[in-house]
């Protein structure tokens, strides 16, 4: 089984390349695909900082790369985009494809503790395995300079991974994230099946719960939320996270965008702001410090 990534497609875009790779993941016990957008290389020895993108329910590693238009600004800012898949695939676990909001395409970026779903370890895949794969196989990437972003379920993943690994990521942003999954139907269904009935275990993957424990945040958290998003009031609950950030004195910029829904039309509209938000944080270490 080939753990070294094999390139399976390549398309030029804004002077750089979208490349898709396949590799076997020991963490997940299956083959996985991921995309990298490499900006134009200014010199042979140049290394790009990395922005990880986590997609939402029922998505693959392709949605963001095809629909967001993020490559335009990533190219000009010199940031590599890494888009992973949303769950293990091809394991044929009973019930894995019974619903679009659980199982295949719905890994919730956690490490499952229930035996049936033991391969659903997207948290370890993204925090430990994938960065190692990138640093060992792509000399153009500087994985020590990384930020993270995502949409919906992926926004939940970005926020929770960032908060629990503040030493690994320079910044975080999200579009319409599930910020309080222990109190919404999507989260309750996923956590019950992946983590069991102990609610304390659920809180380890809930951004609104985590913010009080992991609040040494250096860069402002950026969240865009469409006001016409049909999931706003029962699934996403951004004001719960806003209140928790205020109580923990964590800098949050929550922008409610009138008329926008939950789709990639919304993401494409504001993705440039997010890329530049991360660019500022990722390039801080190259700027001289003044007293």
From TrEMBL:
GO terms for biological process: formaldehyde catabolic process. It catalyses: S-formylglutathione + H2O = formate + glutathione + H(+). It is found in: Cytoplasm. The active site is at 152 (charge relay system), 229 (charge relay system), 262 (charge relay system). Keywords: Cytoplasm, Hydrolase, Serine esterase. Its EC number is 3.1.2.12. Pfam families: Esterase. One of its GO terms (molecular function) is S-formylglutathione hydrolase activity. One of its GO terms (cellular component) is cytosol. It is an enzyme of class 3 (hydrolase). Serine hydrolase involved in the detoxification of formaldehyde. Belongs to the esterase D family. This is S-formylglutathione hydrolase. It comes from Vitis rotundifolia (Muscadine grape).
């Amino acid at each position: 089984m080939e753990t070294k990534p094999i390139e399976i497609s390549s398309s030029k875009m804004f002077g750089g390349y979208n490349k898709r790779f396949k590799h076997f993941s020991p963490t997940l016990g299956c083959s996985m695909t991921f995309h990298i957008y490499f900006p134009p290389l200014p010199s042979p020895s140049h290394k790009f900082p990395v922005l990880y993108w986590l997609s939402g329910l029922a998505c693959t590693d392709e949605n963001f790369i095809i629909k967001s238009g993020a490559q335009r600004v990533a190219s000009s800012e010199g940031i590599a985009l890494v888009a992973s898949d949303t769950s293990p695939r091809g394991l044929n676990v009973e019930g894995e494809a019974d619903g679009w909001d659980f199982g295949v395409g719905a890994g919730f970026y956690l490490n499952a503790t229930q035996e049936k779903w033991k391969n659903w370890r997207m948290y370890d895949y993204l925090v430990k395995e994938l960065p190692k794969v990138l640093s060992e196989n792509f000399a153009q990437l500087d994985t020590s300079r990384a930020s993270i972003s995502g949409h919906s379920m992926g926004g939940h993943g970005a926020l929770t991974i960032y908060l629990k690994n503040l030493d690994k990521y320079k910044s975080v942003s999200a579009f319409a994230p599930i910020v309080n999954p222990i109190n919404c139907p999507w989260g309750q269904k996923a956590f019950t099946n992946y983590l069991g009935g102990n609610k304390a275990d659920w809180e380890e993957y809930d951004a609104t719960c985590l913010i009080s424990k992991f609040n040494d945040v250096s860069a402002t958290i950026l969240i865009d939320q469409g006001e016409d998003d049909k999931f706003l009031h029962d699934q996403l609950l951004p004001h719960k996270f806003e209140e928790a950030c205020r109580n923990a004195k964590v800098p949050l910029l929550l922008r409610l965008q009138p008329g926008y829904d939950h789709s990639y039309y919304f993401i494409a509209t504001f993705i440039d702001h997010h890329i530049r938000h991360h660019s500022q944080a990722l390039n801080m270490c190259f700027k001289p410090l003044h007293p």
